[in-house]
Amino acid sequence: MSANIRKLVVVVDEILTEMGQPVSPPTRRAAAVAVIENPFAGRYEADLEPLMAIGEELGDLLGRRAVAALGVAPSQVESYGKAALVGENGELEHAAAILHPRLGKPLRAAVERGAALVPSSKKRSGMGTPLDIPLGHKDAAYVRSHFDGMEVRINDAPRAGEIMVAVAVTDSGRPLPRVGGLTKDEVKGEDGLR
């Protein structure tokens, strides 16, 4: 792996009740996070190809780890998302280079499909800053019940010269969804929208 990884963190969030109502089956979300050295911290670099290659590697590693944490078959994953938090000596474009050109393809392979765009977010901040990973249905962007997010925070990351890269997956939508829209049972998964 070309990324210099300092730390890997995997978290599973399981919601059993919401507003006093049982959630059955429970809503489960898993995030896998890598804390990596930023090879371009503190300097401008025109060619971000090394970060794009790192994104491809992390899409595979983090995608597989997140799916394994859920304990479901890849085909049972319903939503996904990605995010990056750049330490203060980096720039937002470093996060973009990791997240956008190549991370999605191996993530889609890890969840067996993924016709929809992978929702993403990026920001720059210091250690202990929460990172929100947006979530959306993996095959149909119009499934409102799956518009969601998962927050992760690592107390000692990112350091000034690091980047936190996160992938999240779910086995369902939000708990007790009731705002209408396309349902997961109506998904065709042909155009990434419906």
What can be said about this structure in brief?
It is built from three helices and seven strands; from the N terminus they run E-E-H-E-H-H-E-E-E-E.
Keywords:
194 residues, alpha+beta, seven-stranded mixed sheet, 7 strands, 34% strand
pLDDT averaged residue by residue: 96
Assembly state (oligomeric): single chain
Q: Classify the beta-strand content into a percent band.
A: 25-35%
Let me know the largest β-sheet.
Answer: 7 strands, mixed
Q: Helicity range of the residues?
A: 10-25%
Query: Count the helices. How many?
Result: 3
**Strand count:** 7
Q: What pattern of helices and strands is seen along the backbone? A: EEHEHHEEEE
The backbone outline, from C-alpha atoms, is globular
Structural class: alpha+beta
Note the gap between the termini: 36 Å
Specify Rg, calculated over alpha carbons.
Answer: 16 Å
Low-pLDDT ranges: none
Task: Characterise the protein shown here.
The protein is α+β, with helices and mostly antiparallel strands and 194 residues long. Helix content is 19%, strand content 34%. It has helices at residues 49-70, 92-99, 104-110; strands spanning 5-18, 21-37, 79-86, 120-124, 131-137, 148-152, 162-170. Strands 1, 2, 3, 4, 5, 6 and 7 form a seven-stranded mixed sheet that branches. The radius of gyration is 16 Å and the shape is globular. The model has no long low-confidence stretch (mean pLDDT 96).
List the helices and strands and how they pair.
Blueprint (H helix, E strand, L loop, with lengths): L4 E14 L2 E17 L11 H22 L8 E8 L5 H8 L4 H7 L9 E5 L6 E7 L10 E5 L9 E9 L24
Parallel strand pairs: 3-4
Antiparallel strand pairs: 1-2, 2-7, 3-5, 3-7, 5-6
Helix pairs in contact: 1-2, 1-3
